[in-house]
Design goal:
This protein has 452 residues and is an alpha/beta fold. 36% of the residues lie in helices and 12% in strands.
Length: 452
């Protein structure tokens, strides 16, 4: 079962389902973002797996696990994914029997076969994910294009892990700079079955699509040759956009509509703390390169950190405005507060741990306070406004205008008039915006709560 996977049809369920069914096991898949926990029958299962690929999923699982343990007394409960190992002690305290990481398949098969994890099972080859018993793609997040057209979105993975060591990234303590390419024939077959279900746009879920540029481009060439009408989006580092600028026209030729990139901040000091490998000026260069190639750059941010000042936040909004990114940035990206989970490489910064409060099981992270209490007050107001505007159906420009006013008032500045022509071009938007390294919004927790 998957508590939550960013509005996507869960790959974290479909791939283990394929492996297990190929070995004759009966597998039932439950996506808790679209269904509630079964009321009965859970005690008939041998093993129950819970996918914890992100922070929000883990927060939701904390409320789920005690009830799951009561209803499935005879089952072995296994939690797996990026967020499982860092929270091992907490999960075991909630009744979990086995904790596995994101490369869990071998150990899961060994466990079910009666072997010890890591022993007695040959290396598992990637299989075509089995999506047959998941809800149809039409029930998941869709893509909205300028002009009102909607596209059904499929979700594929071409690689796992990442070569980089950004300090705030939850992948780093688990993969430690390693990544693994998924065979092209598996990715293409997975795309094909989702296109057959009605997908006209594919979202690549790789942490960075250009970790292996040769693998990525060969894959895209095949997909485009077979289905030239299919569009896609991918996540690519700012530094990769600059390094591989010659590949950008080819991405557009193959159908790329937009690139998500973890810009995080325009402040070079903050970027240094996060070890992002790019500067604030590099973000502007990447925006220009992507636009010149006929695509949209959709940057994500972590605007509130222990190092953020009120002036920093005003500068962030100013740069977003001046670069014409207002329509390209999901408003929630301008409200995110830095998350520091167990095992984070941020804890390796000399003296940083001393600035934090003790680990909190409630938020699955180390709480922190900005030295300037006004910054934390502003963050709370920003998040409340973003959620209020989203609930009222407000557009990105209107939402940004509210943030602009809040930021300048908090900094004691006169509120400058915004230039409407700086909003930037209308851009493709997923109906459920992607983001990571952050606490979930109250709306997400309420919508995905067990039994809701």
């Amino acid at each position: 079962m998957s508590p939550y996977e960013l509005g996507r049809q869960p790959h974290s369920l479909a791939h283990p389902a394929a492996l297990l069914r190929a070995r004759g096991h009966e597998v039932v898949l439950v996506d808790l973002s679209l269904a509630t926990l079964p009321r009965a029958g859970l005690d008939s299962f041998q093993v129950i797996g819970v996918a914890l690929g992100m922070h929000t999923a883990t927060r939701i699982a904390m409320g789920l696990l005690p009830e799951l343990r009561r209803k499935a007394r005879g089952a072995r409960i296994v939690c797996y994914g990026v967020y499982a190992p860092p929270n091992r002690a907490l999960l075991e305290g909630l009744g979990v029997d086995v904790v596995l990481g994101p490369e869990f398949e071998n150990d899961l098969l060994a466990l079910i076969a009666g072997d010890k994890p890591g022993e007695g099972v040959a290396k598992v080859r990637f299989m075509i994910p089995d999506r047959t018993s998941l809800p149809p793609l039409a029930r998941y997040a869709h893509l909205r294009l300028p002009g009102g057209e909607r596209k059904t979105v499929g979700f594929v993975e071409a690689s796992r892990g990442c070569k980089y060591l950004c300090r705030h990234c939850p992948l780093v303590p688990v993969y430690e700079g390693r990544f693994r390419a998924i065979p092209r024939d598996v990715v293409i077959a997975d795309a094909e079955q989702q296109i057959a279900q009605g997908a006209t746009h594919l979202s690549f879920g790789d942490p960075d699509f250009l970790n292996g540029p040769t693998h990525a481009l060969r894959l895209l060439a095949i997909l485009h040759d077979r289905w030239p009408h299919i569009t896609f989006d991918a996540t690519i580092k700012i530094s990769h956009i600059l390094t591989h600028r010659d590949l950008l026209p080819r991405l557009r030729e193959y159908g790329c509509l937009f690139i998500t990139s973890a810009a995080e901040s325009f402040d070079d000091a903050v970027l240094g703390h996060l070890d992002k490998g790019h500067t604030g000026e590099d973000i502007g260069r990447a925006v220009a390169l992507v636009r010149a190639a006929g695509m949209t750059l959709a940057p994500t941010f972590v605007p509130f950190t222990p190092w953020t000042t009120l002036d920093d936040y005003v500068n962030l909004l100013t740069r977003v405005h001046d670069l014409g990114l207002v329509n390209s940035v999901a408003p929630i990206q301008l409200a995110i507060r830095l998350l520091i989970p167990e095992g984070s490489y941020l804890l390796r910064i000399p003296g940083f741990r001393e600035r934090l409060r003790p680990f909190s099981e409630a938020i699955l992270g180390y709480p922190w306070a900005n030295p300037d209490a006004r910054v934390d007050t502003l963050q709370a107001r920003v998040q409340a406004w973003v959620e209020q505007a989203d609930g009222a159906g407000g557009g990105r420009w209107e939402t940004f205008a509210g943030l602009w006013r809040l930021a300048h008032e908090a900094a004691g500045r006169e509120v400058p008039r915004l230039a409407a022509d700086c909003a930037g071009p209308e851009s493709p938007q997923l109906s459920e915006p992607w983001y990571c390294c952050a606490e979930p919004t109250t709306a997400q927790l309420a919508r995905c709560a067990v039994g809701a």
